[in-house]
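Notebook entry, cofactor series.
This is the third protein in the set we're modelling with a bound small molecule. For this one the ligand is coenzyme A. I'm keeping the input format identical across the series so the outputs can be compared line by line later. Sequence and SMILES below, as received.
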Amino acid sequence: MARAANDDRILRWMSDTWPEPYTVADAAWWVNEGSLAGSTWALCLKDVPQGGVGAHPQTGFQRCNVEVGWWLAPAHWGQGLVPLAARWLVEQALLNPEVTRVFAPIHAGNIPSGRVAEKIGMRLESVQPRSAIKRGTVIDRHLYALYRDPP
Ligand SMILES: CC(C)(COP(=O)(O)OP(=O)(O)OC[C@H]1O[C@@H](n2cnc3c(N)ncnc32)[C@H](O)[C@@H]1OP(=O)(O)O)[C@@H](O)C(=O)NCCC(=O)NCCS
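Returned structure with ligand:
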């Protein structure tokens, strides 16, 4: 897991809370604790973790929203693997009848991740200028979303 995740081609696009560098201790924490507490899964190829997907249900009056995210080791890019996993993730999120919107915040410039969002039926909902900090720099984010009952 750590070997797959600790790659700048991945780290540069993850949120600022993602460990950097991503160490074996970070992977061990995720396997033993993090993955049990939330809805996150490793993507395994021949039983070896090569990536991950996660769904984060929102709370309170925003509980009809689920945020999703994804990453994959570069050696496996371009085979449609993450769209496959992300479609399943969306299906799981919509099993909750209260959920009406599944969204993915994507850093401006991350074309491949935007393509994943489009392939699973999301559309660019809005651009959020200056809405997050990444490596000490304020960045724009693109919000992609899909809806149970499209507006
Ligand atoms: C975004 C990501 C998960 C895509 O996963 P994937 O399984 O490769 O997805 P796909 O095979 O559907 O490819 C999606 C796009 O990636 C790009 N891509 C494909 N192969 C690529 C390669 N070898 N090198 C660079 N980009 C490539 C293309 O733009 C492709 O779109 P297209 O099919 O319209 O040409 C992967 O690129 C990744 O892990 N990126 C770094 C982490 C990240 O950005 N996570 C999301 C944070 S919001």
